[in-house]
TrEMBL record:
Annotated signal sequence range: none
Acidic residues composition-biased segments: 1-12
Segments of skewed composition (Polar residues): 119-131
Protein name: Protein FAM107B
Keyword Coiled coil part of the UniProt annotation: yes
Protein's UniProt keywords contain DNA damage: no
Amino acid sequence: MAEPDYIDEDNPELIRPQKLINPVKSSRNHQDLHRELRMNQKRGLAPQNKPELQKVMERRKRDQVIKQKEEEAQKKKSDLEIELLKRQQKLEQLELEKQKIQEEQENAPEFVKVKGNLRRTTQDSSEAQNS
């Protein structure tokens, strides 16, 4: 590629091209803002002025990634883990049923408890006579 003629220093009549001034960068407001951003970057502070929509979209994206990872982890579970989880759920259900029965017995009126005791004693005495 050939070099342009104006690079030669020997011709003083030519006007040398100059870099154009950017009006945005030359404004005092922009300089102050840029200085503040550089200082925050050095301190490790990130600007927290994100729009609400951008925050919501980032949160959704993050939740979606977490959900995908959980689904992948569940797909990778072995047969043993699946069987153990089923047994654990069955045990929890049985425990809940026992608690419900116990609460019902505790909350029952006194005459119901006595009636149940009488039935047991009569059954026990009849079994003793049959033996």
